Amino acid sequence: MSDTLSMQAEELERALGGLPATIELDGGGTVELRLMTEADGDAIVAFARSLPEEDLLFLRVDITQQDVVNQWVERVADGATTSLLAVADGRVVGYATVERNPARWTRRVGEIRVNVGAEYRGHGLGRHLTTRIFSIAYGMGLKKLMAHMTPDQLGAQAAFKRLGFVPEAVLADYVEDRNGMPRDLLIFSYDVDGLNDRANRPLRF
Q1: Are 53 and 47 in contact (CB under 8 A)?
Q2: How much is the pTM?
Q3: Spatial distance between the Cα atoms of 41 and 136, rounded to a whole number of angstroms
Q4: What torsion, rounded to 10 degrees, do the Cα atoms 187, 188, 193, 198 define?
Q5: Which letter does DSSP use for residue 169 in this model?
Q6: For residue 99, which phi and psi values (nearest 5 degrees)?
Q7: In terms of C-beta distances under 8 Å and separation of at least 24 residues, what long-range contacts does 198-201 make, across chains too?
Q8: What is d(CA 107, CA 156) in angstroms, rounded to the nearest whole number?
Q9: How far apart are CA 127 and CA 158, in angstroms?
């Protein structure tokens, strides 16, 4: 147990200690990765409002709304959520977040969410964000990581499968998009202690 805790502490220190970090994108260009702060609310709203309408259909919460983002900022401030921002030319172009549930029976479970602006897709940014937030989540001592998405989000499914996440459930007509249409929800999970042979391998970024 102590060895595992030590590895997790080292992983968290390495993941956070390397921030902010400048990463090179596939095909050229660079983006800065840094932790989200309480001052980033307006930048998050601007990012969300720049997303294509079809992307907004699949957001778990409507982050185009200032009050929703304010709640996110509050969770970051109180430590319930840790979020990474990808910043280019002074604006947010993507994010990754791990959110913990404070309830006792789920306190070791974290949910990971990742979103990348349309113009930065296909250049490896989503891979960088997903890998880094995964490493942070593992370093926090979380035992099970979850990711929720719809069947339409093929890129997200591929990214999480590469990290070793496995499909756990399909909930028919479980969520409703911004147009009021029901959508199936896919639940992917990663069991840090058991089902995955990557649990004790440090990630590279």
Answers
A1: no
A2: 0.81
A3: 22
A4: 180
A5: E
A6: -120, 130
A7: 198/163, 198/164, 199/138, 200/4, 200/7
A8: 25
A9: 10
Cα(57)–Cα(181) distance, integer angstroms: 9
Contact 92, 44 (CB under 8 A): yes
Q: Report residue 131 as tokens.
A: 């890998």
Name the residue with tokens 């306190």.
Answer: 107
Q: How far apart are CA 165 and CA 159, in angstroms?
A: 9
Prior bond to 202 cis, omega within 30?
no
Q: What's the Cα-to-Cα distance from 169 to each of 99, 153, 157, 184, 191, rounded to whole Å?
A: 20, 15, 13, 10, 14
Whose tokens are 């404070």? That residue is 102
Q: Which amino acid is at 26?
A: D
> What are the backbone dihedrals phi and psi of residue 70, each rounded to the nearest 5 degrees, phi first?
-60, -40
Instruction: Give the per-residue pLDDT at 100.
Output: 83
pLDDT tens for each residue of 12-43:
676 677 789 999 999 889 999 999 999 999 99
Question: What one-letter code names the amino acid at 55?
Answer: D
What residue type is assigned to position 194 of the chain?
A: G
Estimate the share of the chain in helix, then strand, then coil, as percent rounded to the nearest 5. Answer: 35, 30, 35
Say if CB 194 and CB 184 are below 8 A apart.
no
CA distance 20 to 86: 10
Nearest to 141 by CA among 184, 96, 91, 192: 192
